[in-house]
Amino acid sequence: MKRGIFYALDAIIAIALFVIMVSAGFVVLGGWGAYSYDNSALAVTGHDMLTVLDVNGTLSDAVVNDNVDTIKNFIDLLPSYMCNSILIYSVGEPPVYNLTRIGGVVSEGCSNVTAQGVAIASRTFIPPGKGLHMAEAYVWYR
Amino acid sequence: MGRRKAQLFTTDLSISFSVVVIVIILTTLLWIYSLERKAIYRSQSELQQISRDVAYTLVDTPGYPESWTDVSTASAIGLSSGNHEIDPVKLAALSSASYDDSLDALGIIGSGYGFHIDVDVYGGSAFTPTYSFGGNSSAANVVVVHQRYALLNHSWTRLTLKVWQ
């Protein structure tokens, strides 16, 4: 009786170890081929967004007209697998340069920045008749 | 009693032999699988690097010579006319160039590599397809897609570059 139990335990342990080894192998190998979405691609997108919006005057218009709808239109055109947020600040006078947030938009369905893999880009600009401003872009995978 | 013991050993032997065979087969399959995954991963990494470099050259540089007009004689193809503005004349020249000339000029060199570029311009409510040129990726093993945003004639423009092998 006892000997039989001993053999059964042996078999159970051996099978369990075998299953663990095979599973671990698949888990490790499964990670190898995963497409590596790195932050540099997100950072490039953030940089592109701010440059495009600045160069064609969208950022300045948003500050002058106190309306961020056009920026919202733009970020809603971006791929749905990524979330984007753009925040606009007025930059205070030297020497303190206090940042005061004056507006912001975020992609539809993306309420919070996820801590994992967020890329941040920033750009300063001067709207006509206004002082120095800064836009910050946060880009992350949904 | 003795016969029973012999039978037990035979059963033991059969089971253990089967287990060993299964382990060897599974290990071999895992090894083959891992080699395939490694090859795909390496190919993806190379394509990512190529697509990133090509997209950078297209959007952020004017190419060489800076005033190139013919893809077949240009050393490097860039479309930028400065500050994220795409030069419409250069874009038209690239879109009408031969596929082989474009591959060389874009620096996508190597056996089995291909590319396709889509340029979509914002038309008031959505991006409208404006240019689409290059090869067909339907038979490719690995495809990498890279998107950049720029301006064409002051309008928001999305440049989608596909590179494959």
- Beta content of chain B: 25-35%
Number of strands of chain B: 7
What is the domain tally of chain B? 1
Number of helices of chain B: 3
Percent range for helical residues of chain B?
A: 40-55%
* Cα distance spanning the termini of chain A: 58 Å
User: Which protein chains make the most extensive interface, counting residues with beta carbons within 8 Å of the other chain's beta carbons?
Assistant: A-B, 23 and 31 residues
As for the number of domains of chain A, it is 2
Proportion in helices of chain A: 40-55%
Q: Let me know the average pLDDT of chain A.
A: 82
Structural class of chain A: alpha+beta
Radius of gyration of chain A: 26 Å
Structural class of chain B: alpha+beta
Principal-axis shape of chain B equals: elongated
Shape of chain A: elongated
User: How are strands sequenced across the largest beta sheet of chain A?
Assistant: 2-1-4-3
List strands and helices in order, with pairings.
The complex is a heterodimer of chains A (142) and B (165).
Chain A: H1 2-32, H2 39-55, H3 58-64, H4 69-77, E1 82-91, E2 99-106, E3 119-125, E4 133-141
Antiparallel strand pairs in A: 1-2, 1-4, 3-4
Chain B: H1 2-60, E1 63-64, E2 76-77, E3 85-86, H2 88-96, H3 99-106, E4 114-122, E5 127-134, E6 143-152, E7 155-164
Parallel strand pairs in B: 3-6
Antiparallel strand pairs in B: 1-2, 4-5, 4-7, 6-7
List keywords for this structure.
heterodimer, A: alpha+beta, Ribosomal protein S3 C-terminal domain, 2 domains, four-stranded antiparallel beta sheet, 4 helices, 4 strands, B: 165 residues, alpha+beta, two-stranded antiparallel ribbon, 26% strand
